[in-house]
Amino acid sequence: MAKPNAIQTKIVYYLQMVGPAYVKKLAEVLGLEESQWDEVRAAIKELETASLVERVPGTFVTYQTPEGGTVTKHMNHTYYRPTKKGKRFARGLDHAPDVALTPVYKRASK
């Protein structure tokens, strides 16, 4: 895979900053309509092939809250997280992409 495109860059950055997420949430924070979810699925597939993201195993995922607590969610969807290679890519960005960093356990404002 060549250099990730804008959507792929935002996905990896979001996953690095917020934590594991699923396709619907990624589309929501990217401001995409339901008809554009296939773009996110295709981007995730390419990122998986390039070893920048991976599926999260198990049935529960735990997030750290800004207040220092934790939130545990049952995974009703396929969640993705950045790999070590993906984390290095996100840290190496010259500037932060324009993406809402709404936690997965909260709804993004429309």
Can I get a quick summary?
By secondary structure, this protein is an alpha+beta fold. The chain has 4 helices and 4 strands; from the N terminus they run H-H-H-E-E-E-E-H. A two-stranded antiparallel sheet has the order 1-4.
Molecular structure report:
Pfam families: DUF2250. The protein is an alpha+beta fold. It has one domain (6-91): Winged helix-like DNA-binding domain superfamily/Winged helix DNA-binding domain (Arc Repressor Mutant, subunit A), CATH 1.10.10.10. 37% of the residues lie in helices and 15% in strands. It is built from 4 helices and 4 strands; from the N terminus they run αααββββα. The strands form 2 sheets. Strands 1-4 form a two-stranded antiparallel ribbon. A two-stranded antiparallel sheet has the order 2-3. A hairpin with a 5-residue loop joins β2 (60-64) and β3. It starts with 5 loop residues before the first helix and ends in a 19-residue tail after the last helix.
